[in-house]
Every structure is written in C-alpha cells, then in structure tokens.
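Support request from a user on the community tier.

User writes: "When I paste my structure tokens into the form, the page sometimes reloads and wipes my input. The last time it worked, I copied everything first. Here is what I submitted, just in case something in the input itself triggers the reload:"
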C-alpha cells in the first residue's frame, strides 16, 4: 500500500441494496453467487426459501419488492450484498485498514472481519428481525429530515414522546428519526411548517429507538449461543464511536444497537482524522459514499461505490476497481487488464480478463500478422498538402434546434431565479450552479434537501402537487429543474377543452 494512504470499507445498512446492480455484478463476478449460495443454506433452513432465488433468480427484485414481502428478505439481501462486495474487493487485492458498518452493516462488518461465520451472520440478521416482530414497538417507521441533529432534537422535544428518537446522524443537514407512525406524522407536519424536508427510509422497522428495548435481551441471549472468533482486522463502530476491542464479547454490543443511534458523520470525521483517505462503500447503492463526499468536501479523500449503477448505467464496481488499481490499492490484474481500459472501458473487468485469458494469444497473433501485411504493402506516403482555402468559404454549420425566442428567454429567467433560490437556501455562491452541475454528486445536496427545495420551487411558480409516482432522479441539475418548471407552466397554460 502506498505510504500515507489508508483505506476503509463502509458496509451499508437500511436501503443498502440495488437489485439491478447486484445482478449485473453476478454476471461477471463469481463471488456474488458464491456468497449467496452460502446464505441459501441458512435461509432454506430458517424460512424454506433461497435468498438467491429472490434476488438473482428470474424477474427483477428491487429493495421495495423485498420490503413488501417478509421482513427478513430485505435484511438478508442487504447483508449478502455487503459480503459479496467485500469478497470481490479483497479477491482483487484491496486490503482495508478498517471496516465500518452503518446500522445493520455493522453485523456485516464483524462477519467480514471474521468475528462470526457467514452462516452465523445470517442467523444473527434473521434473529434480529424475529425478536422485533415478537415484541411491541414495530408499529413505526424511519424518516430522514434535512436538518442537523441538534435542531431535530429540539423539534422532537416539542412532542415529548419517549419512543421517538434520533436514529442516525448522517451529516450536518440530514438526521433520521425513528418512532411510532402517528407521532412521526406530527414530526413531518411540524417539519414542513419549519421548511425542513422529510423523506421516508426504506426499512421494515423503526430501528434505533427506545421502542425496541424489550427485544434487546432476547437477541443478546441468542447471539451468546453462537461461536465468536478473534477479529482478523479493525472494526470501527459508528454506534459505539470506537474500535471494537480484541476478544470483546459482541452479543451485548449488538443488542445495544437496538436503542442507540448511529453517529455516522462523527465516525467518518474520526476515521479521516486517523488518516483514512479512501472510503469504499462495499454494498448496494451509493448512499454512504455520497455522504462521505459531502462530509469531506475540499479534502484529499477518495469516496467510491461498488454495487450501484452510475449515470451511464455502468456498474460502479468496475470503475472503482480501475481507480483502486491506478492508486496502487488493488492488484494490477492479469495481462491485458491495461488494454481493457483502452479498448473496452465499459466492459466489466472480470469479463474482459476472462476473454483475454481465452483469446488474448489469438488477438496478439492477428495483430502481428496484420502489421506484417500492412508493412509489406505500404507505399511511402506522399507529403500531405494543406487544403486550399482561397475562394472556398467554409460551410456554415447546421443551425441547432432551438425553442422560440420568447420560450428561451422565459427559460433563462427561470434558470436565473432558480440559481438565486438554491444559492440562498444552501448558502452557496451563485456561480457554483453552472449548467449541468450535479446537485448531489458535485455539490453534495442530498435527496432530502432536494425534495424540500423542489417544494419551494413549486410554491414559487404555483405548480400543482406532484404525482404520487414522481421520481426525483431525473431532476438532478438546475437545467433539468428549469425544464420541469417550463413544462409544468406550459401545461397549466393549455386551454381546457370539453
């Protein structure tokens, strides 16, 4: 590993599953199937179902599909995706100096570090679900608010509800709260009046809340029956805010997770202060890697995703492996891996490696043969003459398609107003909102804040309420939001016909 470089793997929790990306990885990385087959042996015993049939079998299975079914499915899928990403990375020579899990991901991190077997990890995840379902306190959910933890705690204090709690502190402007449904309805209503955005978390239960305290002792007793092994690496807990000690009994610590909050922002800052400059999210979706980018903006930190699809519908894992190789943090790969970036940058690295192993000699021989034939038949090239310019005006470029002048003017005005609105709300200089700049990927504006700002935009222009199936993803730049506003205004201006 290069000097002064330290690497952390982040194992995601709730929401950390992307079915399409996992399937894409399964097609070229055998580690995915290998991990899920080990999980299958346990889910068949426990639930008479193979988890791989659900997430890798016929038909697409996304996170919300799993959440709509039995609660264990989403939790085991998140756990399995994290382990698969970890195994792929380590098989390619990436050696993390520390593992850190977010909520459920802390179980994955401990298994990846060798504290429990992969199979016992499934049992722990399944038991975690089972004991919650057997006790009161599951009538609730989790909501992310676009405000800091201190402000959110003040808001929760207005309601004086003992089962309502801050569940996770993700960054300075995103805090997740957990609690009963009825009380969370009041929280989101108050937040709306204060201009605080709110968005629901994809989770089956309200984790990290006092409501789960009755379930913790039963869970701890179960985990004590499992064999605990020495840790093979360092594991940092964003819940405990410290590293796990060698030989530390883990049953009680994992039971504490039921009621204690996840302080992810503080954990990232601590690891960065300790020298971590490369954070790799080993699991589905790029949520944690985006949080790291926001938390360490302006520093030398590299934050990478794995089991997620990028804007070009490419698997982030393959780009991440190339970046890690270039940084000297992964094995250089077999012969031909350098050609992969030149000849087929969009092809998964394992697929190109397999192709080159099978056909590389044929490609090399074909090139040698063609070069000999080309050289034998090549005549000395004549010096190239500059093209004559006199009397030959250059053809005019074809006119670009454009909107009518008044529509273009209206759009420019809308864009300028949006830039001012977003700059004031986010306290950014207006000049950073250039055309095409990604709100989240480049400016660190998370989805919760984007929902809040889009609501302000709708109020500013008197737009109708958005449809229930409205998706935020396409509107990730001020350009696309300006187009959305213009389209909605045009639609409102259409005459109503009988």
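"...and here is what came back when it finally went through:"
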């Amino acid at each position: 590993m290069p000097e002064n470089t330290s690497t952390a793997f982040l194992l995601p929790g709730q929401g950390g599953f992307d079915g399409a990306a996992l399937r894409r990885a399964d097609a070229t990385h055998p580690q995915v199937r290998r991990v899920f087959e080990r999980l299958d042996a346990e889910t068949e015993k426990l639930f008479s179902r193979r988890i791989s049939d659900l997430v890798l079998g016929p038909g697409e299975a996304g996170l919300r599909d799993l959440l709509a079914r039995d609660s264990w499915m989403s939790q085991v899928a998140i756990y399995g995706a994290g382990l698969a990403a970890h195994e792929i990375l380590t098989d390619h020579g990436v050696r993390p100096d520390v593992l850190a899990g977010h909520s459920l991901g802390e179980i994955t991190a401990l298994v990846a570090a060798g504290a429990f077997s992969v199979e016992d990890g499934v049992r722990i995840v399944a038991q975690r679900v089972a004991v919650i379902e057997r006790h009161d306190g599951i009538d609730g959910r989790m909501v992310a608010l676009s405000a800091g933890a201190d402000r959110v705690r003040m808001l929760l204090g207005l309601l004086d509800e003992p089962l309502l709690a801050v569940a996770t502190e993700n960054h300075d402007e995103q805090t997740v709260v957990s609690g009963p449904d009825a009380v969370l309805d009041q929280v989101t209503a108050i937040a709306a009046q204060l201009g605080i955005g709110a968005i629901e978390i994809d989770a089956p239960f309200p984790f990290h809340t006092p409501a789960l305290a009755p379930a913790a002792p039963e869970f701890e007793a179960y985990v004590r029956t499992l064999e605990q092994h020495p840790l093979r690496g360092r594991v940092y807990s964003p819940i405990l805010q410290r590293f796990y000690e060698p030989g530390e009994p883990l049953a009680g610590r994992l039971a504490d997770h039921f009621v204690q909050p996840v302080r992810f922002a503080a954990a990232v800052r601590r690891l960065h202060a300790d020298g971590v400059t490369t954070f790799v999210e080993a699991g589905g979706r790029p949520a944690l890697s985006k949080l790291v980018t926001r938390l360490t903006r302006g520093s030398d930190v590299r934050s990478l995703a794995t089991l997620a699809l990028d804007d070009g519908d490419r698997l982030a894992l393959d780009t991440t492996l190339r970046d890690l190789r270039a940084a000297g943090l992964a094995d250089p790969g077999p012969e031909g891996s350098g050609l992969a970036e030149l000849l087929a940058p969009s092809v998964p690295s394992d697929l190109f490696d397999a192709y080159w192993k099978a056909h590389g000699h044929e490609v090399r021989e074909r090139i040698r043969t063609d070069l000999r034939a080309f050289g034998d038949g090549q005549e000395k090239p004549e010096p190239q003459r500059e093209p004559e310019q006199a009397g030959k005006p250059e053809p005019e470029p074809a006119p670009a398609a454009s909107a009518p002048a008044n529509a273009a003017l209206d759009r420019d005005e809308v864009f300028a107003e949006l830039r001012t609105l977003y700059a004031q709300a986010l306290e950014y200089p207006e000049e950073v909102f250039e055309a095409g700049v990604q709100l989240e990927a480049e400016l660190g504006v998370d989805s919760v804040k984007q929902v809040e700002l889009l609501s302000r935009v709708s109020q500013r222009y008197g737009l109708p309420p958005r449809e229930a199936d409205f998706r935020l993803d396409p509107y990730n730049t001020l350009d696309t939001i300006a187009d959305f506003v213009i389209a909605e205004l045009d639609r409102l201006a259409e005459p109503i016909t009988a």
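Agent notes: The reload is a front-end session timeout and is unrelated to the input. The beta strands are 7-11, 98-101, 140-145, 165-171, 174-180, 198-200, 235-237, 242-243, 278-281, 302-304. Residues 383-409 have pLDDT under 50 and may be disordered. Escalated to web team.
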